[in-house]
């Protein structure tokens, strides 16, 4: 598969460092977005050289902010500053592109208090940074921490998300007065994010490490040694994918691109770049009046297309479902869904499903994605897992559910960004295909809780909806 690119073959090309790296170092630095995450946990009150670590960190970072080239864009996050016990205590203080004075003012206002939710902070930082325009700018997350994750999460896996979002991003880490356990974890974060780790045992070491990491965050990849490249083989034919529409939910309410049928305003809100949807009832597309059916009001590409919805969810009810597809009414639709269920015998699982309802007659097929045991009616390539780990991953690693049209055939895939199989490859599960001779309806999505014996609230945090036009695909 190739992404909207063209290629011209040459008989023989000599690639040199001069040809590849024609920009000056200043020009390279000016095309960088840097998002700092400054540790605001209670342990930052610990002293080094008779000065609180937070004081040293704030003073050093404030000075370095002025040294970052004017063309580079900078932002700031922190965690642990609002509550002693919360594991969701993290926030963006200044979006990338804020003024240096505003960022320094925010730095000055940070007061350490609570825990160290690094994993969720990294997920937010990486997701936000991946969406800063233009997306082809070099991007870097710089995490500054004096300790280990304290919220029973795996920040290494979350840092790996930076390598799966289609942008040039690295995660660098500065460890300030850390023990071996924390150092190992912080090094793991940097490695997973294709970045570098800098260790600082005292004030002088911290100041030096911070100066280094700021330089590294702006550095372009080194140019390769000259190498002769023979005429390449022609690229294999494949589909060309072009972004047709994108919704990042950046406002304070849904844009005019959407309408909400059977709206319950208490069960959805646009907030902090996400569409939050809540449900305590079943139904979905098969319901006569599905609650909060979010319907696309725009046009779709004339030919083939993919619709991608990216989100995280608590998946705490064992009946959490998000459905995406084309719907005319409860008796006529073609849709995919990703959901959790507890069918019995101790089995807990998540599945991808594709369903076609035509004049009230339904065809449906499901594919197992993750499960807690091998007795869940099927096996997965990754085998049985701890269900608590699976639930935690759903709340931290974005799920990408894709609904595709090729000719008159419809299919779907699901993957969890940053989650890989045993070979280190993205773990993706695909459905079969269903055919519809006529359009099965209007593009829509919704969230519900279909389990009969389920209790509790389904909460999904939808980050984006993207429609891609696809040309040159096999039917």
Automatic annotation (TrEMBL):
<dbReference type="GO" id="GO:0005891">
    <property type="term" value="C:voltage-gated calcium channel complex"/>
</dbReference>
<dbReference type="InterPro" id="IPR002035">
    <property type="entry name" value="VWF_A"/>
</dbReference>
<dbReference type="Pfam" id="PF00092">
    <property type="entry name" value="VWA"/>
</dbReference>
<feature type="signal peptide">
    <location>
        <begin position="1"/>
        <end position="29"/>
    </location>
</feature>
<dbReference type="InterPro" id="IPR036465">
    <property type="entry name" value="vWFA_dom_sf"/>
</dbReference>
<feature type="domain" description="VWFA">
    <location>
        <begin position="33"/>
        <end position="213"/>
    </location>
</feature>
<keyword id="KW-0732">Signal</keyword>
<dbReference type="InterPro" id="IPR051173">
    <property type="entry name" value="Ca_channel_alpha-2/delta"/>
</dbReference>
<dbReference type="GO" id="GO:0005245">
    <property type="term" value="F:voltage-gated calcium channel activity"/>
</dbReference>
<protein>
    <submittedName>
        <fullName>von Willebrand factor type A domain-containing protein</fullName>
    </submittedName>
</protein>
């Amino acid at each position: 598969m190739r992404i909207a690119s063209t290629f011209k073959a040459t008989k023989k090309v000599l690639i040199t460092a001069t040809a590849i790296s024609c920009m000056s170092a200043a020009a390279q630095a000016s095309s960088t977005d840097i998002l700092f995450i400054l540790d605001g946990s209670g342990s930052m009150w610990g002293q080094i050289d008779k000065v609180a670590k937070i004081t040293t960190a704030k003073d050093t970072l404030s000075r370095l902010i002025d040294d970052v080239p004017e063309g580079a864009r900078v932002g700031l996050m922190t965690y642990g500053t609002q509550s002693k016990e919360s594991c969701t205590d993290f926030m963006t203080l200044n979006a990338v592109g804020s003024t240096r004075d505003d960022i320094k003012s925010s730095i000055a206002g940070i007061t350490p208090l609570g825990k160290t939710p690094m994993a969720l902070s990294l997920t937010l930082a990486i997701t936000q940074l991946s969406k800063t325009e233009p997306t082809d700018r070099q991007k870097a997350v710089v995490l500054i921490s004096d300790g280990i994750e304290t919220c029973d999460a795996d920040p290494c896996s979350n840092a790996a998300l930076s390598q799966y979002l289609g942008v040039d991003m690295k995660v660098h880490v500065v460890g300030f007065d850390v023990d071996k356990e924390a150092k190992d974890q912080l090094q793991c974060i940097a490695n997973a994010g294709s970045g570098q780790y800098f260790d600082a045992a005292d004030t002088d070491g911290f100041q030096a490490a911070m100066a280094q990491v700021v330089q590294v965050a702006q550095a372009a990849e080194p140019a390769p040694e000259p190498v002769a490249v023979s005429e390449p083989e022609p690229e294999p034919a494949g589909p060309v994918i072009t972004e047709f529409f994108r919704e990042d939910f950046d406002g304070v309410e849904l844009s005019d691109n959407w309408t909400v049928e059977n709206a319950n305003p208490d069960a959805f809100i646009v907030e902090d770049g996400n569409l939050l949807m809540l449900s305590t009832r079943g139904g979905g597309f098969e319901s006569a009046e599905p609650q909060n059916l979010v319907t696309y009001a725009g046009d779709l590409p004339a030919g083939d297309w993919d619709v991608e919805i990216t989100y995280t969810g608590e998946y705490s009810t064992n009946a959490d479902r998000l459905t995406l597809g084309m719907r005319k009414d409860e008796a006529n639709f073609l849709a995919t869904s990703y959901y959790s269920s507890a069918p019995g015998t101790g089995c807990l699982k998540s599945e991808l499903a594709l369903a076609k309802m035509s004049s009230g007659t339904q065809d449906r097929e499901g594919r197992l994605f993750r499960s807690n045991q091998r007795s869940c009616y099927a096996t997965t390539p990754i085998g049985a897992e701890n269900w608590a780990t699976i639930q935690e991953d759903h709340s931290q690693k974005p799920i990408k559910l894709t609904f595709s049209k090729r000719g008159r055939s419809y299919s779907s895939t699901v993957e969890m960004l940053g989650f890989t199989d045993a070979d280190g490859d993205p773990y993706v599960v695909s459905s079969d295909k269903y055919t519809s001779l006529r359009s099965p309806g209007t593009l829509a999505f919704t969230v519900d809780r279909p389990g009969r014996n389920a209790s509790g609230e389904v909460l999904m945090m939808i980050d984006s909806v993207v429609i891609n036009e696809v040309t040159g695909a096999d039917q």
